[in-house]
Design a protein that fits this description.
The protein is built from 7 helices and 12 strands. The chain is α/β, with parallel strands linked by helices and 241 residues long.
Length: 241
Amino acid sequence: MTRTLVPILMYHNVGVPPHNAVLRSMYVRPGAFARQMGLLRRLGYRGVSMSEAMPVLRGERRERVVAITFDDGYSDILDNALPVLQRLGFTATCYFVSDALGGANDWDAGVIAERKPLMDASQLRRWADAGMEVGAHSRHHPHLPQCDDRRLQDEVVGCRYKLEQLCGRDVTQFCYPYGDCDARTVEAVRAAGYVAATTTRRGRARVGEDLMQLRRVLVGGHNWLPQFAVKLLTPYEDRKG
C-alpha cells in the first residue's frame, strides 16, 4: 500500500536578492512566492504549519496539505511572505535562531558576503500573533553533531525555553541547522520534548517515517512555477534525497 506523501516546503528568504548575493537561489522573489502559494490553492492543497500537519504525518487523518517552513527567521519573511499566507488562509512555521534575534546570519560569514537581517523579538511576536508557528533552530546555529553533550543540550533546550518565553506559546517543532544531524543529535531533540524535526534531506515526507528526521522539498529562486509543480506532484524531489 502506498504511504501518504506530505510535501514540506523549505524556504529561506522571500525577497529580491542583492546584487552581490552569492547564493541567489536562497531568495524566492515575492511575486514567485505568491504564485506558488496560489498554485497550492488551485491544486486543492491547504498550506499549514508543521504542528497543523502532524495529524496527517502521524496517519491520524487524511487531508491534502502542504507544510510550509522558513529557516533562520529572516525579516523579509514577515514583510513579504506573511501577507500572502494571510490572504490565502494558510499558516506556516518559521524556525528561529533564538540568540541571533535582531541580528544577522553571521554563521554564513565564511560562505556568503551579505548580512541578512533577522527578525527581532517584537517581529517574532508579530509572526506568532498572526497565527503562524514559531519553531526552534538552535541558539547559535552550530553544526550540532560537532557539539559536546553539554553544548548540544544547551543549544536544543535553551533555544526552546527562550522562544517560548518570547512568544508565550509552546515550541514543539525543531529544524537542524545546516540539516546536520546524527543519532546523538536526534535523540537530544527527542529528549527535549520536540514533537518533530526537519532536515535538509530532500524529498516529500511519508506518513510513518521518523518524525525526528523529516525530509523537505527545497524551493529555490531558480524554480519557475512548472518546476515547483514538478517538485510538489512527482517523485522528482524524492530522488534527490
